Amino acid sequence: MIAARSFTTRLTLALALLLVAYGALVGVLGRHVATEHEQESLQRLSHGLARHIVEHWPEITLTDPDQADRAARAELLSMLMVVNPGIQVYVLDADGRVQAYIGEPGMVRQEQVDLQAVRDFLAGAALPLRGTDPMGSGMARIFSAAMFPPRSTDTRPPGYLYVILDGQAREKVAGQLSLRRVWQGAGVVAAVGLLVTLLLGVFAFRRLTLPLHRLAGRMREYSLRTLHAADAQRGRSPTSGDEVSAIAAAFDEMTQRIEAQTAREQQQAGAHREMMAGVAHDLRTPLTALHGHLEAMAGKTPAGPGRCDRLLAAALAQSDKVRRLSQQLFELAALQSTDQVLHCERFRLDELVTDAVQKFDLGDGPPPVTLHGAAPGPLELDGDLQLIERALSNLIDNAMRHAPGAAPVRVSLRQSGGRAEVLIEDAGPGLPEELLDRLEQGRSLRDPPVRRSSGGIGGLGLAIAQRVASLHGGSLQALASPHGGTRLCLALPLAAQ
């Protein structure tokens, strides 16, 4: 496959072709102008030749065979041909037919001469003027002409003297000697001039296109660096071609990225509006209930025995809902920030999981959360202890709130290769299909937000855990549960030993 030529090379080739075409045009026009100038000069120089012959040698005007001195006219014509071998002298009658000439019999192949050119010549038309060549060459020749003096008895012009100035003899000699060396020298000079012009043009093009070449190189490198994976997936070769093609391809790719970014921003804006509406719904419900309980405690409704205690407990529960929701929204907003910085330290994950489970054991009854499975031994992680503790707490709290009943939430820890996996299992109704699909595909749980069937948004705790896992190079996945309910796996990479 032939490599694509650079923009500078293409400009150079175009300049070379234009210079060659221009040189050829100038050469053709120059030769034509030189020929025209030469013939005009010769015709002007010999303009009065025929008239001079007619005036000084009247015997040539005798067209009557009875009066003409054939020998004298023949001698005169021979003398003229000897004096100037390049001319051809013809005697024409009033109709333009050749009556006499010097040369071999049969040399005249076209006896009829076009008199219109002769009349234009005699009338002083602009030179050069070309007329008929009686020798039948098919080429128009420059000439000199004179009309014979009319006699009193003549009703028509008695005839014409017709002199071809660039006859075949002159043409033959001119073809051998004329301007061959001049034209050769001019051709050499023109070639050298074109070559020098081409070199200067190449130098100028390279200087002028150097910034374009550098820009194309940077854009090509950027395209190769940012789009190599996408190109490989589409089976398309990286950006190639000259500088202009590279810039055009980079511009198209930039346009596509801008359009894709605009579409993502519009989608995110829609998701943000949807999330705000869901947050407003989630906050409105507990706030309305809290306000109603506070009004009841203020005495606007009759209070019975122990009613104030029940109203206070309900108000505290709604207040805790508002606190938990606002805290989750704040944490999720902080985790979604692009400049999130982890406070990394080395700690033991097995101890952190044990502490997180014990934190939920606050009563005297059966513990709501239990550790299951054999202890895998010390598992060390390099990460943000507070964020991972928050992720575990959210997962356990979600399991407790969405799977109420006698069966406790089961938490287990295991090691799989270079990763530690924390399993949280409950016996609840399970996660919604949309959340399960997103977890299986590794998609974000917050972009766009998950809508509850009852209104509002859901999955904040799972979204926080998923984001924490992503920041640490891990993942959050839903696994099949043999006991029913929900089984989530928080996978985190172990510290390098």
Automatic annotation (TrEMBL):
Residues covered by the HAMP domain: 206-263
Say if the entry is tagged with keyword Secreted: no
What are its E.C. numbers?
2.7.13.3
**Catalytic reaction(s) noted:** ATP + protein L-histidine = ADP + protein N-phospho-L-histidine
What CDD domains does UniProt report for this protein, alphabetically? HATPase, HisKA
Q: Superkingdom of this entry's organism?
A: Bacteria
For this protein, the record's SMART domains field holds: HAMP, HATPase_c, HisKA
- What sort of enzyme, by top EC class, is this? transferase
* GO terms under cellular component: membrane
Among Pfam families, the record links this protein to: HATPase_c (PF02518), HisKA (PF00512)
List residues of the Histidine kinase domain: 278-496
Which regions span the lipid bilayer? 182-205
The subcellular location is: Membrane
The reply on keyword Transferase is: yes
Q: Which GO terms describe its molecular function?
A: phosphorelay sensor kinase activity
What InterPro entries has UniProt attached to this entry?
Answer: HAMP_dom (IPR003660), HATPase_C_sf (IPR036890), HATPase_dom (IPR003594), His_kinase_dom (IPR005467), HisK_dim/P_dom (IPR003661), HisK_dim/P_sf (IPR036097), Sig_transdc_His_kin-like_C (IPR004358), TCS_sensor_his_kinase (IPR050428)
What UniProt keywords apply to this chain's record, in alphabetical order?
Kinase, Membrane, Phosphoprotein, Transferase, Transmembrane, Transmembrane helix, Two-component regulatory system
Record's PANTHER family? Answer: SENSOR HISTIDINE KINASE TRCS, SENSOR HISTIDINE KINASE YKOH
Q: What is this protein called?
A: histidine kinase
- The species is Candidatus Accumulibacter phosphatis
Q: Output the lineage of the source organism.
A: Bacteria, Pseudomonadati, Pseudomonadota, Betaproteobacteria, Candidatus Accumulibacter
